Amino acid sequence: MIRYTFRAPDVAALRFGISPLNELGLGLRVLRLPEHYPLQQAWISHIHPVLPVLDQEVLLHLVDERRWVADFLNPRPASPLTSIDDELAALSRITPERLRADLEPIHGTLPAVFRGPHREVVRRIVEAIASMWHLCFAPHWPRMRSVLQADITHRSRLLATGGYEDMFASLAKRIAWDGKHLDVRTMSNFEAEQEVAGRGFTLMPSIFVTDASTLIDLDRPPMLMYPARGQGAMWSSHPGADRGALTQLLGATRAELLAALGEPASSTELALRFGVSTSAINQHLRVLERSGLLNRTRYGRSVLYYRSDLGQSLASGA
Fold first, then answer.
1. pLDDT per residue over 33-52, tens digit each?
2. DSSP-assigned letter for residue 174
3. What is the pLDDT of residues 282-294, one digit of tens each?
4. In 223-318, where does DSSP find H-type helix?
5. Which residues pair with 299 in a beta bridge?
6. Model confidence, pTM
């Protein structure tokens, strides 16, 4: 178990973040040990045709059988708009000392694939990660980001209405909060304590974790990854229109939208999911909102829609 100790300013400074590189690093665990991630089998099926062209020798040595990932793949996002290009540029500047310090705790030694001239090793790592991003993540990232943003909006609402206790209790089974300490039970026998001590604490939703996950190196600002709401439906195809009373009442498209918005989503994400234009989706969303069936909230540059209590009752009844 890892125990993080908070002072009052640390609690007030707690924040959420999204990191493309962090998602890729956690995705490597799915590739290495797919049997532990049943919800992501569809993603593996999506990317299976491109796996032979990836530099798997490098990628699969960035994670081990305990599902420990090299900490340089878990950056703290500098802003809500962090891009993979910015994170890869920062990774390309990693020092030899940091590279070794992040890899040796995973394997007990530095694997042979990472030995050699430092600049050449880093170049190969960055190229391997960039290729995996463009082939395995970029086509799905708009939808992934929408799920992650919707999760942050939901946790922020819990924090505003129920306080830190309700918010932390909603994140994962392996964590406990007592107002001063955040205890995280790890998958291994790793035991440690860490003072947050003004360094900030970042909470990051992820498509690729099944419970709480944290970092190996406790000398860096702490961060907790937790499973995003809606990740189970991330890769499923949307079902056909409801042919019952709800469809007769609202029409097929609006009934499908209402069914889809059990989890908050943006019009852009919905347009991708339904294969229609954003403007067409927006017309339906405005009608549903004016009818009292949807609420909306702003997150960054996105407007997220979700079912109101009336919409929830109607969708549940259907």
1. 999 888 888 899 889 999 99
2. T
3. 999 999 999 999 9
4. 245-250, 252-260, 267-274, 278-290, 309-317
5. 302
6. 0.74
Alpha helices in 137-240 (DSSP H): 141-169
d(CA 184, CA 2): 5
- 């802003």: which residue's tokens? 79
Of the candidates 53, 215, 69, the one whose C-alpha atom is nearest the C-alpha of residue 135 is: 53
CB 4 within 8 A of CB 202: no
| Other Cβ atoms closer than 10 A to 71 | 20
As a whole number of angstroms, the distance between CA 75 and CA 23 comes to 10
Domain definitions of the chain by residue range = 1-236, 238-317
Position 239 confidence tier, pLDDT thresholds 50, 70, 90: very low
Contact predicate 246/314, CB 8 Å: yes
| Residue ranges of E strands in 101-238 | 175-177, 181-184, 192-195, 202-206, 213-214, 223-227
- One-letter amino acid identity for 257? L
* CA–CA distance, 175 with 186 (Å, rounded to integer): 9
Amino acid residing at 271: A
**CATH number for region 238-317:** 1.10.10.10
Radius of gyration of the chain (CA): 21
